[in-house]
Amino acid sequence: MVQIPTLEEEDARRPAREHDSLVREQTRLVNRMKSRLVMLGITDFNIKLVKAGQKLAGLRTPNGEPIPPNTLAELYRGLERLAVIRKQIKAIEQARLQRLKENPNHGTNPPVLMLAEVLGLGLGTADLLVHEVLTRNLRDDRAVGRYGGMTGSPDESGKTRREQGLAKAGNWRVRHTSLQLAWRWLQHQKDSALAQWYFQRTADGRGVTRKTMIVALARKILIALWRYVTTGELPAGVVLKPVAI
């Protein structure tokens, strides 16, 4: 049975969820503006530059023509929205830092700081995972994997059992964040037992193998972090870093 969160628990999730939504919105907006420029043949301009708006009017297509007026106006409006999104993201991040700095031992702040010490895992990821899954009353490893939507979906009929692939009925934020973390884990925690487990099973170099095993690695990392938060058991070979708040 799904545990209904209290009003305080639900409210505590809002900053991380809003931050995640804003980051996604920022990515979509940047990609849309890039596509407008690519359609004009302009591929070497960084639309994310702080002073991008000052340089747009001076850009030229490969034929030497300026950006058409309606497209230019659309790009300017996009940059205005991008500035607002960046401001809101920064406000959420500053509020989070202030909260952790003023009350490091209050509520969910201790597990957030614990996770943020893991190299390759930032405060934003730690905050989201703690509030979405790691402090929930889940009974075992399998429950953690199911909640993250990273377990198999078997089809059973009599004595026949057929695997239908990944069950995505869990928390999509946890699944998406865990998959992103898994790729970062391979860069920052390459000597850990979990990373070595992945490298051994993807030694054939096949893309389909890496794609399948990265989901398994993400599930293992999520479970390992759940154990770390609940029991203090640090995953084998994991490197820690100091957290600046």
Helical coverage, percent range: 55-70%
Number of domains: 2
DSSP strand content: 5-15%
User: How big is the Rg?
Assistant: 22 Å
Report low-confidence residues grouped into runs of 5 or more. 154-158
Which sequence of strands runs across the widest sheet?
A: 1-2
Q: How many strands, what sense, and barrel or not for the largest sheet?
A: 2 strands, antiparallel
Mean pLDDT: 90
End-to-end Cα distance, whole Å, is 38 Å
Structural class: mainly alpha
Order of helices and strands: HHHHHHEEHHH
> Outline, from the CA principal axes?
globular
Describe this structure as you would to a colleague.
The structure is a single chain. With 245 residues, the protein is mostly helical. The chain has two domains: 7-102; 111-231, no CATH class. The chain has nine helices and two strands. It has helices at 7-39, 52-55, 69-102, 109-116, 123-134, 141-147, 172-188, 193-201, 207-231, and strands spanning 151-157, 160-167. The chain has a two-stranded antiparallel sheet with strand order 1-2. A hairpin with a 2-residue loop joins strand 1 (151-157) and strand 2 (160-167). The protein is globular, with a radius of gyration of 22 Å. The two termini are 38 Å apart.
